[in-house]
Amino acid sequence: MQPSLPHALEMTQDQRELDLLFDPSFIPESARQQLDADLTIRPLASTDHSRGHFDLLSILTIAPPVSPIVYAKTFRNLQSCPNTYFTVVIVSKQTDQLVACGSIIVERKFTRAAGMIGHIEDIAVSKSMQGRKLGLKIINTLEGIGRAMGCYKIILDCNKENIPFYEKCGFKHKEYQMVRYMEDPPVDHPPTPSKL
Ligand SMILES: CC(C)(COP(=O)(O)OP(=O)(O)OC[C@H]1O[C@@H](n2cnc3c(N)ncnc32)[C@H](O)[C@@H]1OP(=O)(O)O)[C@@H](O)C(=O)NCCC(=O)NCCS
């Protein structure tokens, strides 16, 4: 299915020279217009390693910087899956550093008549910029991308403390999350009685 692109984002000269993760036309022009004049919004670029991407991610979780070579390779891997990985960043025009980021990953299903689900991941706003509605703007932009792609729902995992933030973004609580870490010891399943 071809995505229906929202209004094209007006690109600056600097942005046109960047190698971007996805077509910036996915980002509605309204998302840029709603930002303060000191900020800009765009897709992740292959060179964002040097714009504080890992400082930003470390607000969220353990995110030790990888080498520029590994960063470039990972970026290429994501870029090689068209219409799947959409990472959006907000950049300070003054410092050229990332101040907020977030991703939506589009999963194709066989269920729901070969429907699509958007998974929101890695939302982070730098500490000094929190409370300026950047988190909300990132989520709104990702939701717009999910809609343009034709997702029938968007889901995410979060800790309890962030539930009010996501509720303000229009999400509601549903189901539970389960996890199994590969480093965890194997489960010793006792034999079932019929096999004894
Ligand atoms: C959670 C986070 C993304 C919010 O971003 P932000 O830009 O500071 O939030 P916004 O300014 O867009 O907030 C939007 C609304 O949510 C509210 N809000 C934000 N974080 C909240 C929280 N933890 N608890 C309650 N309300 C919260 C704001 O008060 C605001 O409400 P209002 O519209 O009534 O004024 C940001 O604080 C952050 O990066 N935290 C660390 C990383 C993290 O936990 N990421 C989420 C992983 S699931």
List the helices and strands and how they pair.
Blueprint: H1 13-16, H2 29-33, E1 39-43, H3 53-57, H4 68-79, E2 85-92, E3 98-108, H5 111-114, E4 116-125, H6 134-149, E5 153-155, H7 163-168
Parallel strand pairs: 4-5
Antiparallel strand pairs: 1-2, 2-3, 3-4
Coenzyme A binds at residues 59-60, 123-125, 130-136, 158, 161-162, 164-165, 168.
Brief characterization of the structure:
Keywords: Acyltransferase, Transferase. This protein is α+β, with helices and mostly antiparallel strands and 196 residues long.
Notable traits:
196 residues; alpha+beta; Aminopeptidase; five-stranded mixed β-sheet; 7 helices; 5 strands; 27% helix; 19% strand; globular; binds coenzyme A; GNAT_dom; transferase; glucosamine 6-phosphate N-acetyltransferase activity; acyltransferase
3D structure, described in words:
The protein has a single domain (about 15-195), classed as Aminopeptidase. Strands 1-2-3-4-5 form a five-stranded mixed beta sheet. About 25% of the residues are buried. The protein is about 25% helix and about 20% strand. It is α+β, with helices and mostly antiparallel strands. The radius of gyration is 19 Å and the shape is globular. It binds coenzyme A.
Query: How large, in whole angstroms, is the Cα Rg?
Result: 19 Å
Instruction: Indicate the CATH topology.
Output: Aminopeptidase
What ranges have pLDDT less than 50 throughout 5 or more consecutive residues? none
| Major sheet | 5 strands, mixed
Q: How would you write the strand order of the largest sheet?
A: 1-2-3-4-5
How many E-type strands? Answer: 5
**Bulk shape:** globular
Say which CATH homologous superfamily is assigned.
Gcn5-related N-acetyltransferase (GNAT)
CATH architecture: 3-Layer(aba) Sandwich
Oligomer: single chain
Indicate the percent of residues in helices: 25-40%
SSE order, one letter for each helix or strand: HHEHHEEHEHEH
Strand pairing plus helix content: what structural class?
Answer: alpha+beta
Report the end-to-end length measured between terminal Cα atoms.
52 Å
In percent terms, what proportion of residues is strand?
15-25%
Q: What value does the average pLDDT take?
A: 93
Name the ligand types: coenzyme A
CATH top-level class? Alpha Beta
Family: Belongs to the acetyltransferase family. GNA1 subfamily.
Enzyme class: transferase
GO molecular function, one term: glucosamine 6-phosphate N-acetyltransferase activity
GO biological process, one term: UDP-N-acetylglucosamine biosynthetic process
